[in-house]
Write a structure and sequence with these properties.
alpha/beta, six-stranded mixed sheet, five-stranded mixed sheet, 11 strands, 18% strand
């Protein structure tokens, strides 16, 4: 192997430095020339990957959709390498207050629905797509009360979701869109008192983050990166520390079928066009 594999990641939290510095030390210690660049948002990372300034990138689900479209527009393709075991088969939920008169999604017509940030797959794009399937048009059949915390991070935080949950409990909104995991967390930490909410609807399963290589990555380097990551064992204390920080217990092979619903939602919402250009008027990363 020659050269260094350069990977992009987004600094969604200060711990990103610790996480990827740790992975870099582990990988280089096993002979893989590896380095990383941290970005303030996913959009520049996607563009740099498509233009060959990066070899690989750690993608949010929305970043995967955009990067794949940018690559296709340039006549290239991305190769999914690995994803966390915790990235597979997630769901989002639409919840109402326990005593609400709303019992099905169609009952939200004329109401206010709280969401996360404009670019959150789990707390905005996918739940709103679910409501469209029930015949409700966002902004026409119901008001969207968005909480644009950390735009550009593609929902890689729970600030916007927590604000949506609070809007539900305060009566500002009749329903809130959350990831299933956030809904559970908020009932545990008191943001949503136990028994205070009721599930109205939920999305089909979808996948979250994926590490993917672009056209500039040498197959030998990306193949070795994949092999090493899949070999990591959480029984090793050094590996377990990194896994705990990054929220996984094992790396699994990357897959793409879990992004079909999000890709359709992106198109419906006019968030990116078919070439990966940003077309959402209210989005400023």
């Amino acid at each position: 192997m020659t050269g260094t594999l350069l990977m992009g990641a987004v600094a969604y939290d200060p711990k990103a430095v610790t996480i990827w510095s740790g992975f870099r030390a582990w990988l280089t210690g096993r002979g893989l020339p590896f380095d990383f660049v941290l970005y303030s948002h996913y959009e520049r990372q996607a563009e740099d990957l498509a233009d060959g300034r990066l070899h690989a990138a750690w993608h949010s689900p929305l970043a995967w959709v955009r990067s794949a479209r940018l690559a296709a527009a340039r006549g290239t393709a991305l190769r999914p390498l690995v994803m966390r075991d915790t990235d597979r088969d997630l769901r989002s939920v639409i919840v109402v207050r326990a005593g609400s008169r709303h019992h099905r999604a169609a009952d939200l017509k004329g109401e206010t629905v709280a969401t996360g940030a404009v670019d959150s797959p789990q707390a905005t794009l996918l739940p709103l797509a679910l409501l469209r399937r029930h015949g409700l048009r966002p902004g026409e059949d119901f008001r969207v009360l968005r909480h644009d915390t950390g735009t550009g991070l593609h929902g890689d935080h729970i600030g916007g979701e927590r604000d949506a949950a609070r809007a539900l409990m305060s009566g500002e909104a009749a329903a809130a869109c959350l990831s299933d995991a956030s809904h559970l967390l908020f009932t545990r930490d008191g943001t949503l008192p136990p028994g205070a909410t009721r599930l109205l609807d939920r999305t089909e399963p979808y996948d979250h983050c994926v590490l993917a290589a672009g056209h500039a990555a040498a197959p030998g380097l990306s193949g070795e990166l994949t092999r090493l990551l899949l070999s990591m064992d959480c029984a090793d204390p050094a590996v377990r520390r990194l896994f705990d920080l990054e929220g996984l217990t094992a790396w699994l092979p990357g897959r793409t079928e879990g992004y079909a619903a999000l890709s359709a939602a992106v198109t419906e919402a006019g968030f990116y066009d078919e070439h990966g250009r940003i077309t959402a008027r209210e989005y400023r990363p």
